[in-house]
Amino acid sequence: MTTSDVVITETRTMPYGFTCGVVGAAGAFFGLFVGTAQGSGLAGIVIGALICAGLAYAAMAYMGTAQERTFKWGVLALFALAGLLIGWLPGLVVGTLFGWFLGWFIYWIGRCRYRAKLPPYLTGGQVLWHYAFRMICGAIFVFLITPILVVMPLSFNAENFFTFTPEMLAFDPAGYSLKHYRDFFQSSEWQQALKNSLIIAPIATLLAVTFGTLAAIGLSQPHVPGRQVIMAILISPMIVPLIISAAGMYFFYSRVGLQGTYLGVILAHAALGIPFVIITVTATLVGFDRSLTRAAANMGANPVTTFFRVQMPLILPGVISGGLFAFITSFDEVVIVLFVGSANQQTLPWQMFTGLREQISPTILAVATILVGISIALLSTVEVLRRRNERMRGMSPG
Amino acid sequence: MKMTKTLLATTALTVAGGAVAAQDMVDSMTLVSWGGAYQASQVSAYTDPYVEMHPEVSITWDESSPEAVAKLRAMAEANNITWDLVDVTAADAMRLCDEGLAMEVDHDEILAPAPDGTEASDDFGDMIVSDCFIPQIAYSITNAYRTDVEEWNGETPSDICALFDTEKFPGTRTLERRPINNMEWALICDGVPFEEVYDTLETEEGQDQALAKLDTIRDQTIWWTSAAESIQALADGEAVIGSSYNGRFFSAIAEQDQPLEMLWDAQVYDIDGWVIPEGLPEDRLNRVLDFLYFATDTQRLADQAKYISYGPARQSSAPLVSTHAELGIEMAPHMPTNPENSANSFVQNYEWWADYRDDIDAKFQSWLAQ
């Protein structure tokens, strides 16, 4: 049987009518897609429903759980072959996946395995809602993530347009190429933009983290006068529409000679990042026990030592996540840099913005894919660090 | 005073035949252009050879021409001109000149004469649409269609009205999201002769007539804002016929092997060229003028046509246009000015649009939003 750990509700064979009905409906749903692709949606629905219901009946009535494995492999092979005949390589992949799913689905429904991990007293409606809820969550997830996933295969396009060419859909190696990645790494414009982003974002982050943390600690002291007002002013870059900050900075920077300099862009991005750091650090400071600093002072540590050895390690998660937001803000920002920077400070988002407007080239997709990869790596690192931190703290309380 | 000095200096420069004179010149320049294949052609034809002659000069490109007018306004207001030379369309040049944001120039004074001695202003002729404008290329907004549309049963569009003929040529169209050119094409296909188009458009009924014609294809049209979008839609097969710049089409057809064919009928000419921002300090202006003298001479303009199918603005450059730098194909047949292509071209009335643009823009956008 299944390898699942705990079975709360005993499984049993469901009435054939129920199994065939549900599996047939699923078959009709998939048949609609295959049928539409082949020319007739209606025929697809009917044939899909008949095939799937028939297979479900065969599995439940003749194969049973004893020959489950044989049946599943048989269905998989059958659909893989059918897919291969209809749609060659892509068909094979889709067919295999569907065959695997159908084999599993028939036994899942037919043997009532969907109740295995749920308490026995649930009504049919509650079970249905349990899975419907998961389906909805999954659908939302797919909705959010699909645009990013579509970008990735397109970035390996051998053509200069955002097009899934017939070669690509047939998994023909000739339809794929790394030329857009080559273009990114060899074009001096893109490399200059990458370099600028890698100069501007880390320095802006460092400034934002330093000032933001200091401000948060200062503002968390109860005796600071006008705390709310100062806080509101410091947070304002996050609330004021970017274009207004950008236009204001442009005229101010022009007058003081900062417009079109690296320093100007870095300062502007640091100002944008500070609110994120203040908010996250203030949140962690709420849970910080002030008696610890008094204890440290009591033992002869000066405020600076106290900060670095007592306070800082405890609020570090807030500082790091604030810094991460500040970094991403600077790394993704295009409006401010368009105003405050000049062509010499062209950052990656700027280059992507003009590239998208003037020449829709998949190089942008290659860059996007690389950036998504970096973001995933960055967030995973932070998560791993956070868990390690929690584990270590758990081991040595206090 | 400053102006006379500059002019005197440039006259000296002209006499010296473009040689570097011993005067104050900065070694860096920020040029503003449109990016893409067009900017690449400027790099190959103008700046690469210039930097080879003057290795001390560093050139920065800013792909900001689409918002050049707004940015130049902001720069003038902030008194912080960071651009040295800006590539704009003729209409933008006129606006910038009217607002005093671009410098008025004496074309014969600052530009090289043709090899046969013809003065620059005669060589450029009526391409000089404004005192601030130094023309580079003539391009056209025209149409192209896909050659693999099954529903057309082997028919191919032969004139502009195929855009509106959804029975013979069904499929999605792609047109620019602004009234210029679209209104004219709509009227032409509604039976208005070329020479009466602007008279008709001046009246309320004429505008409604054009919009009514556009109504017939509105729901089947992808409205583009950047020329790259329309090429993308056509290459992807989302659209089967539509408008863009002829150089973009050339690049898609000749360089990228896309199944597209040009539809030159009723193409609309436009001109693109340089303007110098008003108020440059003298040392920067000197460098710009030195560069301009070189970059707009007869040979340089002809060279640009090796990389992109836009016609050089000088008459004296036309005979020098040769083959594509990489593909080796003759460029002349791909130029909008080629007699075969320009047989039925439509001349856009800049002044008319300058007067009516705001009204018709508003009307067009609200029509689109309906």
UniProtKB/TrEMBL annotation, chain B:
<dbReference type="InterPro" id="IPR006059">
    <property type="entry name" value="SBP"/>
</dbReference>
<feature type="signal peptide">
    <location>
        <begin position="1"/>
        <end position="21"/>
    </location>
</feature>
<protein>
    <submittedName>
        <fullName>Spermidine/putrescine ABC transporter substrate-binding protein</fullName>
    </submittedName>
</protein>
<keyword id="KW-0732">Signal</keyword>
<dbReference type="Pfam" id="PF13416">
    <property type="entry name" value="SBP_bac_8"/>
</dbReference>
